[in-house]
Each structure stands twice: as structure tokens, then as C-alpha cells.
DNA sequence: GATGAATGAGACTTCATTCAT
DNA sequence: GATGAATGAAGTCTCATTCAT
């Protein structure tokens, strides 16, 4: 019934936590093996090598992040602001379903070990949000900043807030989320 | 007269660039030595070891970042919004005077190799801006979000924008800076 | 009726080819399993371990090589030169019946993994030919060189020629074989 | 004065002995380091990796073997048979100056780790002797066998004899050498 | 009997650090 | 003070072998 072997999942989970916590280079394969409660050699049955592991992990989570955002937007929406709300909600959903994953993505998205495929996956994610912004700019709703600046503001803020939550510098409440969403909307939208 | 020997400076500069570009773990001491045009052993005359080097580098730049912000605020100011402008300008000044330094700070601020002292230096920087925010909240100018959320939004956005610039995804113009400042002010301030 | 199970034979054949081609150390047990179309664990039903496998393989083929030579000589013979012809023919027969086997023997006869028993089997082979040479020396037909030198010349040449054939640097023809036999006879026999 | 560092020489010597004795795969880098009385890491200051080491070792000795043969032939010679004598003498000289080297060459000349350059060096050696044989065939002195067969007989015999000497199955005397030379000449030359 | 997923010992290799020059 | 050759601890990865199915 299980399509993905149990051990592979354990390796994936352990990797995510360790990479997010310590970074790719500072995480050793024996560390991963121990945390996944698996022999060191077992990792290599499921992943060609350490780089392969980090790339698969990265792509899977970036893709799922994108899915969360997309499926948020796919819902019927009530105006552009509501579309933004869905995107924001998608981002929140992702962070809730995949603890530490956003921290992992953030600290590894510039890594030299990323393959072209991984970079493309990330690029696709960025592109999707850019498209949404372009539409808003056409409608005169979104600020007239370069798309990359808008992305940097949205993702930079969100990821940093998220990291504060994971590190217990902030506690995750609906109130906080609503406040951050409002703040980011103000950052991105033209002020009336 | 020269308090800091020439070689030490060379090591510092080379380290900054390499750490910013490749990260702490992926940067080797021989690499630093070569880029600093210094023998590998010479580094150990000036720094106890690699961790010591990265910590001194981190602290120095965090402190200088703080100085830039503080000295921005120290100027006579014309209302709270103008104070924010000075802080923003201080941040910009820092990035201009210390290329790659903000990238280095961003990617190393969670490193396991950071000493308590380094963490405190970073904390002090955060604290300073928090104080500024608290004041603004008292005056009803700044949003009623947790201070850490405000910091996350300000620093997260700024660092990400800055990284885009360094990686040539954005070009540094006064217009861009003005736009980003305006956006961040909107994110942080209560909307009238 | 079948005394040797089919799978064991498959393992033997696959091992021979791989050991001959890549050598003992560069051949992995999974490789053997795959080529023998057998599970990796199955090999251990028939052989205690990798060393055991290579030793049994070595002994079997050395013994069979010896048999080919012996049975060549066993035929009624027409003088000493004709005896040599039978020996040579036996060697040729062996190489024809057991492709790659001589290459395997040649490249593994000095291996550190060989047991005393394997070395003795090889020694027995050498001894048999030595005895034949001693007889020839008594009759004044074979050169007055140390037996080991005679063996080295005969086996060294033959194995090297054989390897050239297997690697397609030489093509196996009756003419070639006749020529080589004549050459080796000249090398070993006293010139009239 | 010393152009090649002492340690590199020690590594070379230790490698040669170990590779000759146990083969490439069965020889570990720590083994080499220990025998060379050098730290394991030191080997990598002089050789890129294990394959690089074995290839440099192989090429150097093959080239020197060729030089010995060539410089033997370069001497003024008194007829074709005398030329063969010089070649044989060159081979003997090489084995005397480079103990174990011929055994190393013999057991590694088919290795999968050899680079194209190494194969070419070996090919050049073979080619040189082939040319000598071709000349002899034109003069009707050398047997009408394929060149590769002649090479196989000469090298195969010589290397095997040599290995017997190194393993103390034969003792190296002028008498033995004279006898082997005479035997090999008989193997290669047309009988009058 | 047969299998192949799992293991961990041990191989190759890198690199922070030392120290003789 | 400055150097860089030398080191060995530690990391990545392979593969002979076992054992639950």
C-alpha cells in the first residue's frame, strides 16, 4: 500500500530537520542515519549521494510550496485582494503541514550544490508569484516596483517571520498571521 | 599608527567575500590564504582558528551595521517618519560601504559556530531597532505587531532585496531604494 | 542425477567471466549475482564467502588444466617431441573448452586471497610439467636450464599469447598454434 | 639540489612494492602511507588521487623500461643477433635497477584504472620491439609469426622468469641469464 | 531454498591546524 | 614574523555479508 518505503521517509524527515537546523555542509551522513534510525549505508539505497538527497528534498518541498500557493489561488476569488489572501493562506498552510521546510528552502536556495533542475523548480515558484504581481500592477493595485523587489519583500518577510516562529521568538496565532498579512499587503499594494 | 596590520585586513577582506559567496563550511583556510595572498599559517597569527575568524568577522560587521543605523538616527530628525528614513539610509550606507557584508551576516546569523558574544552583538542590533519600533507604537504610528515580527519584516525584506542586487537580479538605483523604503514604511506603519 | 545445482553453475560461470575481466577486487558480489541471474544472498548458500568462491573457482580450473595436460600425455606417444605436442595440445584444448579460464588463472595465481590448497593445486600443475622436463633433460633433449625457468618460459609465453587472442590482438588459427608450438619447442629443447 | 622531494620518492617506492605485491585494488592508501613513513594526507600533496599515483608510477617505469631497451640498441652493434643481445641486456639492466618494477608493470598493464596516456606509453614500448622484430623478419632471421605473438613470447617469458627470481624460485646468475637469452633467441629466430 | 533490503566496517579523500625553517 | 609542507581526524561512500520474509 505504501508507495514510498518507510526508511526513505525516515531519511527524508531526518534530513529536512538537520539541513534546516545546521545547513547542508554541517550535516553529516552519519548524523542523518542516526536520526533516521537507519544504517549509514541504507541512505545510499535510496539516494545516489548527499547532493542527490538534498536536491530531491529541495525540489519536493519547493514543488509542494508552489502547489499550496496555486491551489490557494485556484479557489474562486473575490477580487485581487482576496487572491492575495489565498496566496498568503497557501503559504501558511505549507508551513503548517511541513514544519522546518520553509527554513530549509530559505537557507538552501542559493546553495552551490543545487542542480539546474532544483533551480528551475525554485524559479517556477518565483515566476508564479511574479505573474500574480504583474496582473496586479496592470490593474493599478500593486506598487510599481520591479517584480524581483516585490518577491524579495514578500518572501523575505514571510520566511523571516516564519523562522522566528520556529525558533520560538514569535508564537503562531491567527492574530499574528492576520497582522502580518495586512502588513505585507500594505507593503505590496499601492496606497489609496 | 596603523593599529590593524595589513595582513590581518587582507585576511578579513578575503574571508568576507568567500564566506558570503560560499558559506562558512565550504570555505577552506587555504582558499582564504590564497585570496588574501598570505601563507596558510599566517592566518593563525591573527586568529585563533577558523571559528574565531568567522566570529570576529561577524561581530565587526554587525557592530558596524548597528553604528550605521545609530549614526543615521543620531542626526537631528524631523518626526518619526524621518527617523525611519535615517535608519533606512543607515542600512543603505552600510551595504554601500561594505559590499557583501550584509549577505554574509544574513547567511551566517544562524550558524552553529557563532559564539554567545556574536549572538549578543546581533541581538543588540535587533534590540536597537526594536526600541525604535516601540517608540513608534507608543505614538500610534507603528503597527501593533510583536516587535520581532516587525524586525523580521524589515530585515527579511531588506536583506532579500539586497541579495537580489548583489546577484544582479535587481539594479541599485535611487528610485529602487526610495520605492523599497516607501513599501517597508507602509508595511510597518499604521495606515491612516 | 545432476550433482551440481544449476544456480551454483551459473554463479561459477558468471564469476569466472567477471574475475577474468576485472579481477578479484574489482568484482563485487552483487555484480556476480546479477550476471548469474541470482539473488545476492543465494551465492552464500553455495559458497562460504567471496574468498571461498574464488578459491574453488581457481582450484577447479587449475585442476582441469592439469587434467587436460595429463590426458594429453596419457595417449600413446611417439617420442619425447610428440609428448610435448600432446602437452601443448592439452593446453590448447583447455583454453578452447574454458574460455577466459586461463586469463583468470594467470591474473589470480599470485593473489593474497589464495589458500594453501589453491597454491598446492597450482604447484601440482607446475610439478607435473617439471617432471616431464626433467625426463627430457635426462634424455639430453631439453635445455639445461632450471626447471622453474623452463616452466616460466612455457607458461609465461603461452598465457601471454592466449591473452592476446582473448583480447583480439591475435586471431586463433591452426597456423598460429603450430607456429607458437614450434617456437616454444625451440625455446625449451636443445638445439641439434 | 634534489629536484624530486624526498617524501614523493618514498611514496613512489612504497607504492611500487605494494602494488607489485598485492595489486592496485588490494593496496590501500594508509598502507602506502605507513610504508612510506608519511601521513596519509601527504600522499595527496604529490598525487591527485590513487589512480593518478598508479598511472604516474606505471608511466615512469614503462618509459624507463623502454629507455633501457633503446639505449641498449643504440650501442654499436655487430649484426642482428647482437642487437637482440643488447635488447635483452637492456631488459636485464632495468630489472636490476628497478626491483619489482617489472612485476608491477606485468600485473597492471591491463588495469581498468590506466589512463589513455599510460596505455600509449605501454604501446610505445611494444611498438619499439615490434619494429625490431619486423626488421629481423625482413632479413629472414626472425620467425614468421605475427608480431604480437613474438612480443607475447618475449615479454611473457621474460616477465615470468623475472617474477620467479623476485620470489626466490630462481636465483639470478649470469649463467641463468645467458641460458634464458639463448632460449628466447631460439624461440624467436628461424632455425637454420 | 531463494531473495534482496539493510547494515557497518573500512576505503578514499579533504582540510583545519601545527611547526620546522 | 611569515611560510607552506606535513599531518590525521573526520567526512563521504562502497560493498561483503546477514537475515527476515
Structural account:
- Chain A is mainly alpha-helical and 192 residues long.
- The mean pLDDT of chain A is 93.
- Chain A contains nine helices and no strands.
- The first copy, chain A, is elongated and about 60 Å long.
- The termini of chain A are far apart.
- Chain A has two domains: 1-47, Orthogonal Bundle (Arc Repressor Mutant, subunit A), CATH 1.10.10; 52-188, Tetracycline Repressor, domain 2.
- In chain A, 73% of the residues lie in helices and 0% in strands.
- The interface between A and B is large, with 36 and 38 residues.
- The structure holds a DNA duplex (21 and 21 nucleotides).
- Chains A, B, C, D: Pfam families: TetR_C_10, TetR_N.
- Chains A, B, C, D: This is TetR family transcriptional regulator.
What integer is the average pLDDT of chain A? Answer: 93
Low-confidence stretches of chain A: none
Regarding quaternary structure, what we see is homotetramer
Helix content of chain A: over 70%
Largest sheet of chain A: none
